[in-house]
Amino acid sequence: MPENPSCIIVIPCLDEERHIGALLDQLRQAADRLGARIVVADGGSRDATRAIVGRAALEDANVVMIDNPGRIQSAALNLAVEIYGDDVDYLIRIDAHGGYPDDYCDCLIEEARETGADSVVVSMLTRGTGLVQQAAAAAQNSRLGTGGSKHRHRSSGEWVDHGHHALMRVSAFRDLGGYDESFSHNEDAEFDHRLRRAGYRIWMSGRTRMTYYPRNSLTGLYRQYFGYGRGRAKNVLKHRVVPKLRQMAPLMVAPAASLALLAPLHAVFAAPLALWAATCLGYGLMLGLRTGAPKRALAGISAMVMHFAWSLGFWLQLLNAGTRGRAA
Q1: Residue 1, pLDDT score
Q2: Model-level pTM?
Q3: Which residue range forms the structural domain that includes residue 163?
């Protein structure tokens, strides 16, 4: 392996004028240290994103922008590797509205070299500023919101089955054909399933992590988790995998809501939905009292939106697949 591995730093983005300038300023320093190229794959931004990236590209030859007609992240990464992946050891994936330590890229490459991992993933800390974003962040940082998912909590460094995508060996990425672009969400989990099945190894970083800023409206949060639910169902259908135990309880939320429609016949039909709602709201209240941050009490509402949207997306995707199968 080369002493100083070459890499490409890929940023899929769409309408990210508020974040892309500062992010590029930060990453350009890392690119200089690592001899890396920064590839911004833009999905057709209509704000000032393209102008900001264009100015950075004029100032720094290591920054390039490509058009991503597929618009989604999986297509952006695949296209960037297709164009710029030759003779490159590593791909580093950056979320346009995430927060990163200055040595983020350096740490990823160091751990990949030391462990021999084919993929290095990271844990995420979710933060927010406004009321809705702070409530969503509190939910996503809790076991109520994530079910104990490893990549939502700090790691000391360990081999894992899945995590938030950060670095991948380009040769392994190409060997598997990249991301499945039929996945608009959960493309990372689907890819990790194939990666492990092919004998490649995934290491969760113990040295660095990223900060994620959630949607700042309940509508946006709902759409995001509805997409996650659909993506998880597609993964189940494609690979015939059984959802993990921590995912089973949220899956029951949409059926419980359907059952509650029969409450006019008998109150017992509303009991499962009422128990779930009370659990979420009670957890949020406890979180607010325990942390002394009243805004965090709204985490229960955010968790309810997340659970219901994820469950509904999952079941509708399965139902849609079943309908198509019968039609065929």
Answers
A1: 38
A2: 0.88
A3: 7-137+150-217
Note the pLDDT tens digit of each residue in 123-166. 988 888 888 999 998 898 888 876 656 655 677 899 999 999 99
Same domain assignment for residues 26 and 96: yes
Please tell me whether residues 94 and 76 are part of one structural domain: yes
Check whether residue 47 and residue 127 sit in a common domain: yes
Among the candidates 167, 185, 217, a domain finishes at 217
Helix axes 20-34, 104-115, angle to 10 degrees: 40
Question: In sequence order, what E strands does the chain have?
Answer: 7-13, 37-42, 63-67, 90-93, 98-99, 119-126, 158-159, 164-169, 202-212
pLDDT at 108: 97
Residue 211 and residue 255 in contact, taking contact as beta carbons nearer than 8 Å: no
Residue 66: strand pairing partners: 41
Secondary structure string (H, E, C) spanning 186-221: CHHHHHHHHHHHCCCCEEEEEEEEEEECCCCCHHHH
The pLDDT assigned to 36 comes to 95
C-alpha to C-alpha distance for 116 and 202, rounded to whole angstroms = 10
pLDDT at 89: 96
Question: What dihedral do alpha carbons 225, 169, 243, 94 form, nearest 10°?
Answer: -10
Q: Which of 171, 188, 217 corresponds to the end of one domain?
A: 217
Are 202 and 275 in the same domain? no
What are the tens digits of pLDDT across the range 283-294? 999 988 888 887
Domain tally for the chain?
Answer: 2
Q: Does residue 142 sit within a domain?
A: no
User: Which of the four pLDDT bands, split at 50, 70 and 90, describes residue 296?
Assistant: confident
Residue 14 pairs in a beta bridge with: none
Give dist(CA 28, CA 11) in Å, integer: 12
* 260 and 184 co-located in one domain: no
Indicate the range of 137-141, 228-232, 322-326 predicted with least confidence. 322-326
The answer to whether residues 42 and 110 belong to one domain is: yes
Which residues have a Cβ under 8 Å from the Cβ of 61 and sit 6 or more positions away?
Answer: none
In a domain, 143, yes or no: no
